[in-house]
Design brief:
Number of helices of chain A: 16
Oligomer: heterodimer
Largest interface: A-B, 19 and 20 residues
Largest sheet of chain B: none
Structural class of chain B: mainly alpha
Mean pLDDT of chain A: 89
Shape of chain A: globular
Helix content of chain A: 55-70%
Strand content of chain B: under 5%
Number of helices of chain B: 2
Strand content of chain A: under 5%
Radius of gyration of chain A: 22 Å
Largest sheet of chain A: none
Distance between the termini of chain A: 36 Å
Radius of gyration of chain B: 19 Å
Mean pLDDT of chain B: 84
Low-confidence stretches of chain A: 393-415
Number of strands of chain A: 0
Structural class of chain A: mainly alpha
Order of helices and strands of chain A: HHHHHHHHHHHHHHHH
Number of strands of chain B: 0
Low-confidence stretches of chain B: none
Chain lengths: 415, 47
C-alpha cells in the first residue's frame, strides 16, 4: 500500500471526521462572533446578559476542574500518598479546564482585549467578580506551574523540573486557598439577585453550596476522567498507576459520598432557614426535587453502596450522575431558575451557534488532553524521574510501554 | 395559621428553631451514613 493511501486510512476515522466537523463549525462561528459581535451569534438580551457560555463553560468548567485542588490537597496536604498517581491527571484536567474557561471568556466578554484591565488598569476591589477574576487568574498560573514538571520531564530539562517540584507543597496550599475563595465566590455572585433567582435556589448559603458541590464535582470528575482514560489511554499507564487505581477509585468514591451527603443536608438547612417548604409543591419545586434527589441523594447512595460492595462499575455510574448533577445545578442557578418570574416568551434559550462554540471548546480541550496524555508522563512515571518507592515485597518493574515512543529525542527539539 | 409570621423576630425564632432540630437529625444521619459506608472496611482489610 502506498504511503498516501496509508495516511488516508489512518486519518479518516469516525472520531477524526466528527472532530474535524466540530472544529470547522467552531472556526466559522468564531469568525462570526468577532466580526458581527455578540448580537450576531447569541440570543443574549438585557434580561439575560449571561448565557450558556457563562453557565456551561465558566460555572460548570470551574466546578468540574475542582479535581485539581482536591486531589493535590488529599495527597500533599493531608498526606494520603496512595492517591499520588491520580495527582497528575487531575492537575492536567484542572489546568485545561481553567484554560478553557479563560478561552471561553474571550467569546463572552464584549471586548476581550480588555480582560487584563481589572487587574492592571482599573481594579474594582469591592466587586465579587473582581475577586473571582483575580483568583482564576492566579490559580491558572498555579495550575500551569503544577503541570509544567510533566512537560519538562518530557523535554528532558532536569534542573528547572527539580526546582518546580520542590515548590509542590507551597503551590498546593496556594491552590487550595485560591480555589476555596473563587469556587464560593462564584455562588456569591448570585447573592446580588434575590428577586431574580427562584427562592428554592437562592440562599444566603449559595457560596457554601457552590464550594461544597465543587468538591463533589472535582472528586467525581477525577473518577469520570479516570474511567475514560482507562478505556482510551490504557497503554500509557504504568504498573504503579494501575496498582493504585482501585485505591483511588474507592477512596475518592468514599470522599464524594460523604461530601454529597453533607451537600444534601446543607441544602435542606437552606430551605429550612428561609422557610421555603411551600415552594416544593410548585412546578419549580418538582424540578428542584428532581435535582436534589436524582443528582445529589441518588449518587451519594450509589457511591455508598459501591464502596461497601467494592463495585467499581457502580462508582463510575455515580460519578457520571454527579457530574451531570453539577452541570444541572449550575444551569438551574444561572438560567432555569434565574428570572423565574419572566413570561416564557422572554426567557432565554441559546442559539445553535452558542451551543456550537461550547462543543467546540470542549473538543479543543479533549484534543489537547489526548495530545499531552499520550506524549508526556501523566499516567506513568518518567523512567528518569522516578519518585515511587516500591512497598515491601513489591517488585520494581519497568513500565510496559516503549520509552522511545513517549520521550522525544533531544535533537528533534533543537537542544 | 401554620405559615403566618407576624414579625421578623417570629420568623427567625421559627426557622432557627427548626434548623437547630434539623442539625441534630443531620449529625445523627451523617454518623449513620459514615457507619454504613465504612461498615465493611475491616472485612476488606482482614482479607
Amino acid at each position: 500500500m502506498s504511503t498516501a493511501a496509508e495516511m488516508k486510512k489512518t486519518w479518516l476515522t469516525p472520531f477524526n471526521i466528527i472532530v474535524g466537523i466540530i472544529l470547522l463549525v467552531g472556526g466559522f462561528v468564531t469568525i462570526l462572533r468577532f466580526t458581527k459581535g455578540l448580537a450576531g451569534v447569541t440570543n443574549l438580551t438585557d434580561n439575560y446578559p449571561w448565557g450558556i457560555w457563562i453557565s456551561f463553560d465558566l460555572l460548570c468548567g470551574v466546578a468540574l476542574a475542582a479535581g485539581g485542588f482536591t486531589t493535590s490537597a488529599a495527597c500533599y496536604v493531608f498526606g494520603l500518598k496512595r492517591f499520588h498517581s491520580a495527582v497528575r491527571p487531575a492537575i492536567l484536567t484542572a489546568f485545561l479546564g481553567y484554560s478553557l474557561v479563560v478561552f471561553a471568556l474571550h467569546y463572552d466578554v464584549g471586548r476581550p482585549w480588555r480582560l487584563p484591565y481589572p487587574f492592571f488598569v482599573q481594579s474594582g476591589t469591592t466587586s465579587v467578580l473582581f475577586e473571582v477574576g483575580l483568583c482564576v487568574f492566579l490559580y491558572l498560573i498555579v495550575l500551569f506551574v503544577e503541570w509544567v514538571p510533566s512537560a519538562l520531564e518530557w523535554l528532558g530539562f532536569k534542573k528547572p523540573r527539580n526546582v518546580i517540584v520542590r515548590m509542590t507543597l507551597a503551590l498546593t496550599i496556594f491552590g487550595v486557598v485560591l480555589s476555596t475563595m473563587h469556587q464560593s465566590s462564584l455562588g456569591a455572585l448570585y447573592l446580588i439577585a434575590p428577586s431574580k433567582l427562584h427562592p428554592l435556589w437562592y440562599s444566603m448559603f449559595l457560596p457554601l453550596f457552590f464550594f461544597v458541590s465543587a468538591i463533589a464535582a472535582g472528586l467525581s470528575m477525577v473518577l469520570f476522567e479516570g474511567t475514560l482514560s482507562h478505556h482510551y489511554l490504557h497503554d500509557k499507564m504504568d504498573k504503579v498507576y494501575l496498582s493504585e487505581h482501585d485505591g483511588v477509585t474507592f477512596g475518592f468514591a468514599k470522599g464524594a459520598a460523604v461530601v454529597l451527603v453533607v451537600y444534601f443536608f446543607i441544602k435542606i438547612v437552606g430551605i429550612t432557614l428561609d422557610n421555603n417548604w411551600h415552594y416544593l409543591l410548585t412546578g419549580y419545586g418538582a424540578w428542584f426535587l428532581f435535582e436534589l434527589l436524582g443528582f445529589v441523594a441518588l449518587p451519594a447512595f450509589l457511591y455508598a453502596i459501591a464502596v461497601r460492595e467494592r463495585n467499581a462499575c457502580l462508582v463510575r455510574w455515580a460519578a457520571v450522575i454527579t457530574v451531570l448533577g453539577i452541570i444541572l445545578n449550575r444551569f438551574n442557578v444561572s438560567l432555569v431558575a434565574f428570572n423565574w418570574q419572566l413570561p416564557p416568551a422572554q426567557k432565554y434559550f441559546p442559539s445553535w451557534m452558542e451551543i456550537a462554540i461550547s462543543v467546540f471548546i470542549v473538543t479543543v480541550g479533549l484534543l489537547v488532553f489526548r495530545f499531552i496524555a499520550t506524549k508526556m508522563p501523566i499516567f506513568y512515571e518518567h523512567p528518569d524521574f522516578k519518585e515511587h518507592v516500591p512497598h515491601e515485597g513489591e517488585e520494581e518493574e519497568a513500565p510496559e510501554f516503549v520509552e522511545h515512543e513517549l520521550k522525544p529525542h533531544p535533537q528533534s527539539l533543537g537542544h | 395559621m401554620e405559615n403566618a409570621f407576624y414579625t421578623l423576630h417570629d420568623f427567625f425564632v421559627f426557622t432557627k428553631g427548626s434548623a437547630y432540630i434539623l442539625m441534630g437529625v443531620i449529625l445523627l444521619g451523617i454518623l449513620g451514613f459514615w457507619l454504613f459506608i465504612t461498615g465493611r472496611d475491616e472485612e476488606t482489610f482482614i482479607k
